[in-house]
Amino acid sequence: MQKSHDARVFDWRVKPDNVSIQARKLHIMNIARRHFLRLGGAAAILPSLPPMAHAQTYPSRPIQLIVGFPAGGPNDILARLMAQWLSVRLGQPIVVEDKPGASSNTATEAVVRAPGDGYTLLLVGPANAISASLGENLKFNFLRDIAPVAAILREPLVMVVHVSVPATTATEFIALAKASPGKLRMAATGKGSSPHMSGLLFTIMAEVDLRIVQYSGGGPAIKDMAEGQMDMMFEPMSAAIEAIRAGKLRALAVTTSTRSMAMPDVPSLSDAVPGYEASVVTGIGAPANTPADIIERLNAEINATLADPAVKAHFADTGGIPLGGSPADFGRLLAEETEKWAKVIKTAGAKL
Question: What does pTM read for this prediction?
Answer without folding.
Answer: 0.79
